[in-house]
Amino acid sequence: MSIERLHPDPLIDVLVADLGSVQPRRPAREMLLIVALLVAELLLFLLLQDARQDMPAAMATPVFWWKWFTFAAIAGLAMAAVLVSLDPAATNRRQLSRLWRGLGVVAPLALAVGWLIDAGAAGRAALLARLDWREGLDCLMNVGLLSLPLVVAMGLLMRRGASTQPARTAGAAGLAAAAFGAVIFAVHCPHDDPLYVTVWYGGAVLAVAGMARLVLPRLTRW
């Protein structure tokens, strides 16, 4: 071996000169931070907006719990998918594949349950009255605003991670953030009609997920 080959390459020295140590990810800690942000956001929201006045009566109806658990389940699955996908070694694991499939099954199944509840309801009003577009636009705005801090938090997590499918991870991040926002807003919103929830809540969740899919990959490291 020649002596010249033993000398370090100056180009390598330049490339590694600005490198710093990278702290390993801690998924449990990241999840706790998300939960803390959710609790803080819920408390702040309740300070600014009162809880629905008919909460005790609403909690006695199955449709209220359908609305709440639907978006809680979507948020939980999407959040789990995000945390797992941020580890490049786990991107192709069966665990992540099950989470993606779970997301694909939970949303349509939950909506189908809502339609079953709706089919058994008596005295349905006219379609436009049920959609109540003025309240619906307010719902869209509120769910979107409540999701923004969570979208920012997910973006920061993505910068610390190394997803090999950033667009899919970003879409799941937006889905989780918007579904968590819907869970918070449900404490205030008096509308439990499955048609209303499907159109306005569902529209808000899809809009935020689409926005996150477009924006967040630009912020990732890889």
Q: Helix amount, in percent?
A: over 70%
Rg result: 22 Å
| Multimeric status of the protein | single chain
Q: In total, how many domains does the architecture comprise?
A: 1
Give the helix/strand class.
Answer: mainly alpha
Order of helices and strands: HHHHHHHHH
Which sheet architecture does the biggest sheet show? none
Query: So how many helices?
Result: 9
Shape: elongated
What amount of the residues lies in strands? Answer: under 5%
The parts where pLDDT drops under 50 for at least 5 residues are none
Cα separation of the termini: 37 Å
Number of strands: 0
Q: What's the overall average pLDDT, rounded?
A: 80
List the helices and strands and how they pair.
Layout: H1 10-16, H2 27-48, H3 55-58, H4 62-85, H5 94-119, H6 127-131, H7 133-160, H8 166-185, H9 194-215
Structure, described:
With 222 residues, this protein is mainly α. It has one domain. The chain contains 9 helices and no strands. The chain has helices spanning 10-16, 27-48, 55-58, 62-85, 94-119, 127-131, 133-160, 166-185, 194-215. Helix 4 (62-85) packs antiparallel against helix 5, helix 4 (62-85) runs antiparallel to helix 8 and helix 7 packs across helix 8 (166-185). It is elongated and about 75 Å long. The model has no long low-confidence stretch (mean pLDDT 80).
